[in-house]
Amino acid sequence: MIIEDVLAQLDELFAQHKVDLVEDFLLRRIDEAAAEGDTASLITLLNEIIGHYRETGETEKSISCCRQVLILMEGAGLKDSVAYATTLLNVANACRAAGLLRESMVYFQEVKAIYEKKLTATDFRYASLYNNMSLLFQEMGDYESACDCLERALGIASMYSEARIEVAVTHTNLAASQLKLGRYEEAIENLKKAFSIFEMDEDRDYHYSGALSAMGEAQYMAGNLDESARYYKMALKEIERNVGRSKAYEITLQNLNAVTEKLQNLPVRNRQFSSGMELCQAFYEEYGKPMIRKKFPEYEHMIAVGLVGEGSECFGFDDQVSRDHDFGPGFCMWLTDPIYDEIGEELQKAYEELPSTYMGITRFTTVKAQKRVGVFRIGDFYEGLIGLRDIPTTQNQWLFLEDYRLATAVNGKVFQDDLGEFTRIRRGILAYYPEEVRIKKIAREAALMAQSGQYNYSRMFGRGEKVTAAIALAEFMKHTMAMVYLLNRTYAPFYKWMHKGMKKLMVLPEIGDILNALVDFPNGDERIPQTIEMIVALIIAEMKKQGLTSGEDNYLDHHTDKILKSIPEKEKKDDSFKTALVNELVSLEWEAFDKVDNEGGRADCQDDWNTFSIMRKSQYYTWTDDMLKSYIGDFHRANDRGWNLITEKYGRMMESTAPLRYAQIRESLPKLPDVKKEIIEEIVKIQVGWMEEFAARYPKAAQNARSIHTAEDTPFNTSYETYLRGEISTYSDETLDLYGRFIARLCREDENLAKMIMTNTALLYGYGSLDELEEKL
């Protein structure tokens, strides 16, 4: 028997998770080795099946095999050899698992005696001995001795670079003993070290499940019941995947059930988070900001802070599935090169000293994603995402950048950036592709959609190439989604989030639902080509709206020349993007406005879309694209957490129009920092002055608007000043910053925003000018 081949076959069974076949395989090979008189192979195979029975909880079979192998080795004259000691180690573990603790200790001591005679003090086999002895001490309740054994094992194993899995197992076992001694913070740190090693491998070692179970217990002890349940669930999956529903599975399931029951009996908790972004921003506010202020006060306004980059939470797509890795409290700090040279390393050290657990969530980071949070040079951060340290400057740079990289560079949220350098680059990228680049990318996607969907799918299926046909259909769907993002002037995220992100798009979001139907059709269904043509027709119709093509040809590839030839004409003027942004924002406002509950019942204006639309568009057509994008983002984030910005706006107005009612709801409104209030009041003061100037020049038009001053407020009349203050108070810090800069620019250019807005109102109502409106009133 060639034992190496047999062991390779055994490894393959484990790799394929065919645990149910292992016993039969080993028993047949044991019979073969016995029949051949191959004592060496027989000893190896008996050791293997002892370990298998131990892991599956079949203790009687395990102990029976232990007796056989010891008799066999003694008969072969191997007693007191290192090989005999190694088998004794396996036997000791089997006895421990069977509850024969005294016998187990005797065998361990015998192993130790042989090793001391035969091995050097730093031989790696000592690490294995101490590791296994620690498990026995754990069973006996002597956790101090267990920790002592494990620290010895760690000291030896760490000397061997090839023993990383053994080091990970030792960290796990040490954590388990520390938990029994109530040292759960030390245990969590050891388990993090174990995770960082286990997760280097795609196919993780069985012992990874032990680390997950231990972390479940650690989080339970720390009071983080949600996290405890999450780790126990992950452990169950790993145990079942590796050895099936064994005794270890049953014990872990019992632990999970106990945690779940305790969670169900808990009162509703006050502190919850609706998204990873909210968790991370709260973590920054509670721990990060005070740390910066205390340790780096002179640099506080030079450190940009936020959460941007890779990770579902940066896109707002995080859910229970995505939160099983690379998730938890954390944030980024971005520094210019000179500031990084002064404090970068020290700031990173201070960051690492922040709590790893917050609101019951512990950051769980894999090796592949270690540097998603922490301290960065601004240039390094952007270079890591898009390959450039600043805004792309040439057409080629834009053309060859992938959408998902750009999407990753501008997602998330900037919590603070007083210096503005990080945000300068961010806004430059957010401004989107130069139009010529966008059109070239649209032409490319049109050609690829035609090739994969309209041409290759049916041809491949007709030839019986079903796999190739399925690939062609998948390519068509991918390029369709990329096309929809381009038509929305929005960077497409990484492929696994492209479809999910389509729900937030304004142009052609319905294609996302059509793709859902398409993917449900059986391969070869006659409805697939029909649905492909339906999608293509929608794409072509939208391209016509955007002035990219013309004609009635429904084959996309025939449109590519027209798309490319549209570049010179499109470069003359293109305000369709702003229109799309304005329409999206007004729709979001209307949806929120429709849900506002008034004390006196539903207001008439809540059913007057036309007037609402004109009034709001009049204002927003004066805004910049960045302002529109930012406020749209405010609405999406508010909607994600179940908050109504319009309800908040009207609630804030009540401070003047209904003070008694306001006193009842004040605590439910987000608290505004004093600095933000001061900024708002400065802006309101400027705009009230503009409205006074407008009313003096256009009195008739002004009479049809709100009264100007807060002093004129009544329960039935809300002034322009009060309305403005209430609305601006709902802006996020980023939106308020953009709005403040916008107001400052208008002041420098001697423009009057009230007049600009009323001019738009006149035009939208069909008047030739504001002067014509004034004349006809």
TrEMBL record:
SMART domains the record matches: TPR (SM00028)
Domain of life of the native organism: Bacteria
Residue span, DUF4037 domain: 398-498
Entry keywords, A to Z: TPR repeat
Stored SUPFAM superfamilies: TPR-like
TPR repeats: 127-160, 168-201
Pfam families (alphabetical): DUF4037, DUF4125, TPR_12
The UniProt record lists the keyword Cytoplasm: no
This protein's record includes keyword RNA-binding: no
Gene3D superfamilies to which the protein is assigned, alphabetical: Tetratricopeptide repeat domain
Matching PANTHER family: RAPSYN-RELATED
Protein name: DUF4125 family protein
Species assigned in the record: Parablautia intestinalis
